[in-house]
């Protein structure tokens, strides 16, 4: 498996080692942004539960806007910081880290469209697997196990192919759909390497979710700590270094066709 990774378009082991070296030298700037994401996410969840029984809709809407802006804005700042470090730029002006309004809304739109696509794929999966009911497959099994599994597999590969769209938006200042087409073109031939990377990331989150489900509170918090301060900072730089390396070898155009690069 390691030999296969060495022969892939971007050498995954080399990318990870270089990213970890960058993280070692710039840990606090990257981990600080990840900590801000962690606080924003948990604080928004806490306030949502606290205000769930109130009728203060204006306050809810205002807080929703603030937390969405903070969360997605911080993610874009993290991507910008990671890209600069991947290029060897350790210091930049403050304005170079602030995403534009266009970049913010394109990033938010990408999240919304991906969520919509999840629902659409689940609906199509439900239609395709509906005949299984006539083979005595239980409806609950179909709706809670089979269809979510099929949807998850499909959307994982979709996510892998479009995973670099925020980098194109930040780096090249392209709009959402052009960035997605470029991400699909860039990841062509690198799907397996990226899948392995996603599996490593997902394993840490699955361990955390499993511990929360089994009510192992302390262990779940330990995994949450590891995810926030080790996994996410590492992945941020790994993806930035991978993007930087893959772009150096990219031979396609600036506005590739989607269908030609899907397979």
Structure description:
The structure is a single chain. The protein has 263 residues and is an all-alpha fold. It has one domain (2-26, 102-261). It contains ten helices and no strands. The chain has helices spanning 2-7, 12-25, 27-50, 57-86, 101-129, 139-162, 165-171, 176-187, 191-213, 217-249. Helix 5 runs antiparallel to helix 6 (139-162). The protein is globular and about 60 Å long. This is Beta-carotene 15,15'-monooxygenase.
Please give a quick description of this structure.
This protein has ten helices and no strands. With 263 residues, it is mainly α.
What descriptive keywords fit this protein?
transmembrane helix, Beta-carotene 15,15'-monooxygenase, 77% helix, mainly alpha, membrane, 10 helices, 0% strand, 263 residues
Task: Show the helix and strand layout.
Blueprint: H1 2-7, H2 12-25, H3 27-50, H4 57-86, H5 101-129, H6 139-162, H7 165-171, H8 176-187, H9 191-213, H10 217-249
């Amino acid at each position: 498996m390691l030999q296969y990774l060495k022969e892939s378009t971007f050498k995954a082991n080399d990318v990870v080692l270089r990213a970890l070296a960058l993280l070692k030298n710039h840990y606090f700037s990257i981990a600080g942004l990840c900590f801000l994401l962690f606080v924003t996410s948990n604080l928004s969840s806490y306030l949502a539960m606290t205000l769930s029984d109130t009728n203060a809709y204006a306050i809810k809407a205002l807080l929703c806007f603030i937390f969405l802006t903070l969360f997605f804005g911080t993610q874009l700042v993290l991507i910008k910081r990671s890209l600069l470090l991947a290029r060897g730029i350790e210091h930049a002006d403050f304005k170079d880290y602030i995403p534009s309004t266009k970049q913010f809304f394109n990033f938010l739109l990408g999240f919304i469209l991906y969520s919509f696509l999840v629902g659409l794929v689940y609906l199509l999966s439900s239609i395709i697997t509906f005949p299984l009911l006539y083979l005595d497959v239980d409806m609950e099994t179909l709706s809670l196990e089979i269809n979510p599994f099929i949807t998850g597999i499909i959307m994982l590969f979709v996510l892998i192919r479009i995973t670099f769209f925020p980098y194109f938006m930040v780096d090249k200042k392209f709009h959402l759909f052009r960035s997605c087409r470029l991400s699909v073109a860039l990841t062509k031939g690198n799907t397996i390497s990226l899948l392995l990377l996603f599996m490593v990331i997902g394993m840490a989150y699955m361990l955390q979710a499993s511990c929360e489900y089994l009510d192992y509170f302390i262990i779940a918090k330990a995994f949450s700590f590891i995810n926030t301060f080790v996994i996410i900072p590492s992945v941020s730089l790994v993806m930035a270094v991978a993007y930087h390396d893959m772009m150096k070898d990219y031979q396609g155009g600036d506005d590739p066709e989607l269908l030609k690069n899907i397979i």
